[in-house]
Amino acid sequence: MTTRARAYRATHAPEEALSAALPEFHAARDQHGGPDRETVEALARTVHLPVATTRGAFSSFDDVKAKPDSIRVCAGTSCMLAGGAEVSRELGSHHACHRVYCLGYCDRSPVALTASGSVVPRLSRSAFSVFEGGAPPPPPAPSSVRCAARHAVVTARIGVSQPTTEAVPEYKGLQAALARSPDEVVGMVIASRTRGRGGAAYPTGRKWQLAARASGEPKFVVANGDEGDPGSFIDRELMERDPHAILEGMAICAHAIGASRGIVFIRSEYPVAATLMSEAIAAARKAGILGPSALGHARPFEVEVVRGLGSYVCGEETALLSAIEGQRGEVWPRPPYPVEQGLFGKPTVVDNVETLVNVAWILRHGADLYAEMGTSESTGTKAICFNHGFAKPGIVEVEFGVTMRDAIENLAGGPRPGTQIEAVLLGGPMGSIVTPDQWDAPICFTAMAKRGLNLGHAGMVAIPRGADWGTILRHLLTFMRDESCGKCVPCRLGTLRAHEIAQGSLSSLNLPHFQQIMDLMKVASLCAFGRETPGPVRTILEKFGDRILAEVQS
Amino acid sequence: MSATARTVATINGNAVDIHRGDTIFSAAARAGIDIPTLCHADGLEPEGGCRMCLVEIDGQRPQASCHTPISPGMVIHTATPRLHELRRALLELTISSLPAGTCEPDEHGTAFQRLLAAYEVTSSPFGHHATARALDESHPYMRFDRDRCITCRLCLNACEQVQGQFVYGIEGRGGHARLVFGSTERFADSACVSCGACVDVCPTGAINDRDRLTGGRADHAADSVCGYCGVGCQTHIESKDNVVLRIRGVPEASANHGHLCVKGRYAHAYHHAPDRLTTPLLRDASGVLRPATWDAAMQYAASRLLEIRDRHGPDALGVMTSSRSTNEAAYLLQKLFRTIIGTNNVDCCARVCHSSTAIALGTVTGTGAATASYADLEEASLIVVAGSNPTEAHPVVGARIKQAALRSAALVVIDPRRIELADYAGVHLQLWPGTNVALFNALAKVMVEEGLFDTDYVERRCTNFAELREFLAAQGLDDLAGITRVPADRIRAAARLIAQRGPGIFVSGLGLSEQSQGVASVMAYCNLGLLTGSLGKRGSGMLPLRGQNNVQGNADMGAQPYSLTGYLPLGEATVRRRLESLWGAPPPLEPGKTVPEMYEAARAGSLRALWIQGEDVVQSDPDTTHVIEALDTLDLLIVQELFLTDTARRAHVVFPAAAGLEQEGTFTNGERRIQHVRPSVAAPGEARPDWQAIRDVGIRMGPPGPAWSYRNPSDIMDEIARAVPDLFGGISYDRLTPDGIQWPCPTSDNPGTRTVHVGSFVRGKALLTCVDYIPPLDKTDASHPQVLMTGRVLDHYNVGTMTRRTPSRSIVAHDYLEIHPEDASRLGFVEGTPVGITSRWGHTTAPAHLTRRVLPGTCFLSFHFPDTQTNCVVGPHTDPKSKCPDYKVVAVQLARG
How many CB atoms neighbour CB B786 within 10 A? Predict the structure, then answer.
């Protein structure tokens, strides 16, 4: 993100200065394909950004490198453990394929996505016929959703009904919000002590308060639907099955901070979610809930969907905002914070999808009832995603405070029959490798942090006994190398060099260099991606290093 | 920050003051604590990429100091064993992206090499990038070496935040991210304007000046002032064996803050061109110019000047001082003609550029110069640019305007061409050439009639408002809009924007001045400045951009026929007494002839001798045929020049001149800043500084009064200070370091004047003027249907005498005719078609360049190359008051050439 390129657009096309540029990137990609000179020059003219800026941004997204008609095969951790690499290699010999990190069906790995957006879960050779054309496969069944909390917050509606975008539910939380002053709404959210569910766990009410106080027009609410962590799929389920709860949370936020525009940023790996979310927006607008008078007389709130273009780092809020503006999906150094100068330099709240659903519930049922659940540091509930390696894969909503062991052994039913779990990858590649001796840790941001664990978005991927830790290590390093944005030296070059080292034979000779890179990334990187992804890698070396080194030496 | 309560943090055990907006890095830098960095530079926004500036803060994890705000009470450590190890590892990783051995540690090398040396990094334990990649040497001045590029993005940030050019991008992701330029793989194909800002910040030499690489170590360095254009950038010039090796900007200079343009930074090779004049030349009996001694040449010149004076009277002689030479030379030359010869036939090329501006500003305010300074551009909330194309003709100021627009100043561009700045403007009024007065009256009409003006300012500080109101009421907005061909709605919108965002800076150029309504254009433009209350305040005012490097100074020194040094009136008794005591004789009372009038007089036989200092008038002045006729009738033509130009070829005596790089003196830039020019290299052969040649001819002629005993230019400046104490009384060479002084500066303790007319105008109250639109004199008709404008392009300077003798010639190799594709298609031209351009005054040809920058029905031609002789097409029309020629509206016919 460069401020001058933003200003360039604002001076060259003032009427478009506050419009998302990324949709034009999609159009260019769909029309022309890769980042060749003509495409980039035409795109630059369309989005009113400098050619070099446009070239840089366009080429930073994975999707532009793949043919638009290719099949996306999941290379996420869960699918990798389910033998996805072998299946997709075979599929690739018949069809154009490209690898993506997580399609959000970890409960049914391995999985692929056709060019037309049909999901093919439990991908196996016998299912290849669906790629031959003909009728698209039926949409997959919803994930299993259960609630173990006293009150269902996140799963209140997705647990009981099929997705409905047409029938607009009552936005009771929004009505409650509009009956209060913006300050009172912020006060309620602060009182609930709810924290961001995207991984950083920042107090949501505090964020809103800062945005409410910031000056600048218009203000934006951005729902972060860039659920990139392999192992997590609650956001996809919410966007597909309860989009109105997300819109309601956004409208409440808009009222609280004085925003008039909203964007739901959805990763390109979730095409169904993008479609359903757009339908829900149209329905809510038709019902008069969103639109010119959404927040009362002449107080508009308009929401649009912006699709991502293939980049994990865009899940980070500043990278996400840069991408929407048509710039590289890279983190920018803070300050400025998005609440003060966010999208197009305007005050912006970026909240995770699940967070917004929590807020809608808080407004409906009160901060007190909410805060009664969970722990004092982490109030409310959390949706845990269990991958196919558990006996009962799917989503379980729990109150903060339950132990991992309780969640794994009781709620998820333990390991898939016939397997044993050697460790759990918690919270995706920026999370933690958690072995059974640590499972007594309560699910709580603070308590886990004290134990050196990272809850992240609370996806759990079971790593069965017998899995090849060397493969897992290289899988994580490949992910890191592929998804590093390239902004800061430790991550840009550290992921590249560490990957090279790990592809060769990792031995006592080069292990110190490898460790040094991981340490450097952890301490020196600009953003959480570089600082946190070395965590699981280091744990693997610490706990299973002997197997990896032995494996390579033999 | 209150003075009593210091806000401090602790860095390495020292208490450090915190200023508003400080990062740890900036606070440390101010305290003299050096923190290593590879991606941060003064004045640029933090990038946060290299992480070398990590510091330890008690109670926190290490933070990058370049983007971490410092807060009171922080206890910070910038040099610990842990940080040393982290930085060392970062350097090892960084060089791993380069082929082994491309960057060796070197305490005297690039910033990167110095860090490698300091952290004792010789190679990467993590491996190296395997293969070497080819150098990109596609550009004549710059070279890109990918094998040295560490993707730090300093070039990108400097390009965007200093020049505003957006040449660079980062392609790809992660470890494969790499620097790219534009949309191709060739640097020369990019949008680069060769300002060199990226080179100055590159820590590895990946992007570098070619002259820097091949020149070797300098044996001499001097700070001086650029000789290209009136911005007056300060330069640091390194040379070796009397050849300039490299030039960079002086960071502390107010005029340019270290920034330069392609001409100032790179176009210096002309000074050692093989065809430099190295000896005086005298025309022999057979009419051939032959080398002569200085003594013979000067003796000839002195005796012939006296002979002609004695035979035909003093007014049979005239002089044109050079706007490229120094104040001292101009002062001395006008003094020679006014006192020894006794004529006011003294003029300079300002006549053919900003004479209209000077007269108009003088009429309106009492002073014929900019009221504001460049520094005001950074403070302005509104910038109006009319008839000026700064990003090409005044690139360093152009970049500042662009940056101001990018930082949210409102920009209004008024120009018949869609110049680069138009893309950055809130409103571009693309008026028909020659209709400035109608447009400014229309804008003023909207402002007055909608009550959108500063009533208090107008009442307190201006006169003639009632007349203006009445005058404007009588004009129809639709009529005016019709004349300008700009829709009335657009004019209204622009007027409202100007009124709403003003006061502002009103920049102008030759598009206003070089018109048959030149004076009227500038006066009508001043109305807008006055209605918005912009003159006499910081952050606003009138800012005409002067063309040549010392055209301001030439006018200041008295190179005009109707007023004296410092704009002193010819007839005022006290002035005459003061000058008489200083000069030994009073100046003549009668005003002299302007440049066009001198040509006319020569052709009529009444002007017999002309001294032209450093200007190729055959190429630069309009109506070339008549200029040549005039020169060829003279009994005596003396030319001081660097090269044997078309003008010098016609001379009887040619004095070989020292270039700006080779002599001492002062230049005065467009914001009235008198700056010290210091020699960097010796003049070739027997070439001499202009002031010396003038002095020595003067001595030979026998000056009245005190002897011409000037030992150096500083002596001359001391006399100038005594001649015009109100403006220059406080100026002396010892005060010009480091940043020059802006006149007026009456006393030696006066700091100079950034903003003129604060509180009151020099003439008392400013004059609002009522000027009617008069159509341009060169009318289009069926046989001459197209309107031609002439002007400059970025890479060349004026008639190209200097820049054509540099590698700039490979960037732009010829003049070209900008023409709208619709016209081209109608006339059957494609890109490059040779086009015959015929006016009522002459004919030339130039290749067509199809562009939507110009309106259909208009076209644009530059005048940098003698092959084109653009000015033979330009006619004899001038402004009635200033006599400034109309270079901007010429009726022509275009046909396949």
Answer: 20
